[in-house]
Amino acid sequence: MNTGSDEPGEVAVAADKAWTDGTEAGPETERGLGSRAPEFIKARRLLHLSWQVGVFVVGLAVVGAGIVMLPLPGPGWVVIFGGMAIWATEFVWAQLVLRWTKRKVTEAAQRALDPRVRRRNITLTVIGLVIIGVLVGIYLWKFGLVMPWKIKDQ
Q: Which class for 83: exposed (0-12), middle (13-18), buried (19 or more C-beta within 10 A)?
């Protein structure tokens, strides 16, 4: 990524400064992209590379644990985004992914709070519950309160 300067210590700044509410980000709220490693680590190339490898390995372990937690009990998605946040301390691509994700989650939350969408969701839920109730009623009318397996025969 070309930042327009070859000076060390400078970081790239995101081109899109508009927040989700439509206001422009001021200089005090502007957050640059790039490494957030301490300056003494950035000053030494080999140390900075070792730092990046360490951050990548730790982030990979956390993301891997989150992926394992998806089918197993545990907060899988929360852990995956935690691993992405660890990567975002060092890698621009992870920072961009997290910004995109945060923007999409905020947009989805705003859409979910829209009164028309809430009415539609409530209506669809009620229709679904009525259909399930009718199906359960038909089953009970046809078969009674008898379970489909025979426990007495065992």
A: buried
